[in-house]
Amino acid sequence: GIQVEQSPPDLILQEGANSTLRCNFSDSVNNLQWFHQNPWGQLINLFYIPSGTKQNGRLSATTVATERYSLLYISSSQTTDSGVYFCAVEQAAGNKLTFGGGTRVLVKP
Amino acid sequence: GAVVSQHPSWVICKSGTSVKIECRSLDFQATTMFWYRQFPKQSLMLMATSNEGSKATYEQGVEKDKFLINHASLTLSTLTVTSAHPEDSSFYICSARRTGWDTEAFFGQGTRLTVV
């Protein structure tokens, strides 16, 4: 099956710093999503981004499908950005999502 | 937006008993729902795909007789953990997509199961 690797596995940031999270995948995909898992376990949809670039406030994402990677940018980080960030890919429409291992982010005040 | 509601949020049960978890799509219809399991500090692993009106499809290594899935309507799927044991303690999360729309998946808030 498809392999999804996220880096770095852990990230400690000072409040106000910028960061980039990476997601590499081993095969072509039909869909890619980024999620933020909060301390209570809820997965929050950040981006649905099979290709191209999207921005939402301080967050933006870019997927280069031909090179099989996606990047999530966090700018001016805040303590509320702490949590685990997952990317997940889908190989065929309506099919299951395969998750990466996640990046655990801690933003210190 | 698309809202998926899961109930209960947490449950503690005795070893040997069964527990039912519900997953509802509140404002859309979902022909297919997915059940995931997450152990502490690990990623989400797909357990099974729930199909409305037909049998669920289980991932390799997941016991279908232990994790019973029923998808009786376009807005409700249930996961029943039968004869639960302490090793079944985990975080269970469901997801759904809007039938006929794009493939963006939305997730419930999860159910933390503790078997004592």
SSE map:
The complex is a heterodimer of chains A (109) and B (116).
Chain A: E1 4-7, E2 10-14, E3 19-25, E4 31-37, E5 43-48, E6 52-56, E7 59-64, E8 69-74, E9 83-90, E10 98-99, E11 103-108
Parallel strand pairs in A: 2-11
Antiparallel strand pairs in A: 1-3, 3-8, 4-5, 4-9, 6-7, 7-8, 9-10, 9-11
Chain B: E1 4-7, E2 10-13, E3 19-25, E4 32-38, E5 44-51, E6 57-58, E7 67-73, E8 76-81, E9 90-96, E10 106-107, E11 111-115
Parallel strand pairs in B: 2-11
Antiparallel strand pairs in B: 1-3, 3-8, 4-5, 4-9, 5-6, 7-8, 9-10, 9-11
SS content category of chain B: mainly beta
Percentage of residues in DSSP E strands of chain A:
over 45%
Shape of chain B: globular
Q: What's the mean pLDDT score of chain A?
A: 95
Largest sheet of chain B: 7 strands, mixed
- Give the number of DSSP strands of chain B: 11
The helix-strand sequence of chain B is EEEEEEEEEEE
**Global structural class of chain A:** mainly beta
Helix % of chain A is: under 10%
Strand content bin of chain B: over 45%
Rg result of chain A:
13 Å
**Which residues of chain A sit in consecutive blocks of at least 5 with pLDDT less than 50?**
none
| Distance from first to last alpha carbon of chain A | 40 Å
Number of E-type strands of chain A: 11
- The whole-angstrom Rg of chain B is 13 Å
